[in-house]
C-alpha cells in the first residue's frame, strides 16, 4: 500500500469535514485531538460521520469517555503507519460508535475476559492496565446500551471491530 502526502491531506481534510457535521462540538473537538495524537504516533485515525445530529440519553462527557476508550484501544493495537477507523451514527435517540483496527480472530473466552476488571493483553507488569474495557462495559450498561465485538474479514486482512450503541 502506497501513501503519498496528497492522500494523507485528503484523508485528513475529509475527517475534519465529517467532524464539522457533528452537533456535539465537545465530541468533535475530542475526536480531532485523537486524530492529531495518532498522527504524532505515525498512525492514522480515519473518521466517518453518518449523522449530523448525534443523540443519546448519555451526557456528552460520558460519551467522550466511551469514545476515548474505544479510540485508545484501537490505536494502541495499530502498528506505526497503520490505520484505525471510527464511525459515528445516531438513530432512535442512540449513538452508534464503531472502531475497527487490524487484529486476529478472538475466542469466545477471550471476548468475555476482555471486559473483566484487570484483564489485559499488554506485556509488562500489568499495573494500570485492564480497566478501560471494564469501564466501557460499566458505562454502557448504565444506559442499557449494547457492546458488540466481532472480527471482520476484508481484502486487507482481519479487523477487530467494537460497536457500542448507547
From TrEMBL:
<dbReference type="InterPro" id="IPR036890">
    <property type="entry name" value="HATPase_C_sf"/>
</dbReference>
<dbReference type="Pfam" id="PF02518">
    <property type="entry name" value="HATPase_c"/>
</dbReference>
<keyword id="KW-0067">ATP-binding</keyword>
<keyword id="KW-0547">Nucleotide-binding</keyword>
<dbReference type="GO" id="GO:0005524">
    <property type="term" value="F:ATP binding"/>
</dbReference>
<dbReference type="InterPro" id="IPR003594">
    <property type="entry name" value="HATPase_dom"/>
</dbReference>
<feature type="domain" description="Histidine kinase/HSP90-like ATPase">
    <location>
        <begin position="62"/>
        <end position="161"/>
    </location>
</feature>
<protein>
    <submittedName>
        <fullName>ATP-binding protein</fullName>
    </submittedName>
</protein>
Amino acid at each position: 500500500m502506497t501513501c503519498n502526502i496528497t492522500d494523507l491531506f485528503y484523508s485528513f481534510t475529509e475527517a475534519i469535514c465529517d467532524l464539522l457535521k457533528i452537533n456535539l462540538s465537545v465530541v468533535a473537538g475530542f475526536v480531532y485531538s485523537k486524530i492529531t495524537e495518532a498522527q504524532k504516533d505515525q498512525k492514522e485515525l480515519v473518521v466517518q460521520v453518518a449523522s449530523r445530529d448525534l443523540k443519546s440519553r448519555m451526557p456528552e462527557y460520558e460519551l467522550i469517555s466511551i469514545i476515548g476508550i474505544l479510540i485508545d484501544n484501537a490505536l494502541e493495537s495499530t502498528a506505526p503507519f497503520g490505520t484505525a477507523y471510527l464511525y459515528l451514527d445516531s438513530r432512535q435517540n442512540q449513538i452508534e460508535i464503531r472502531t475497527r483496527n487490524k487484529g486476529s480472530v478472538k475466542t469466545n473466552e477471550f471476548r468475555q475476559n476482555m471486559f473483566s476488571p484487570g484483564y489485559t493483553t499488554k506485556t509488562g507488569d500489568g499495573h494500570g492496565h485492564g480497566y478501560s474495557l471494564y469501564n466501557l462495559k460499566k458505562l454502557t450498561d448504565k444506559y442499557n446500551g449494547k457492546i458488540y465485538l466481532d472480527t471482520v474479514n476484508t481484502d486487507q486482512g482481519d479487523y477487530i471491530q467494537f460497536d457500542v450503541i448507547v
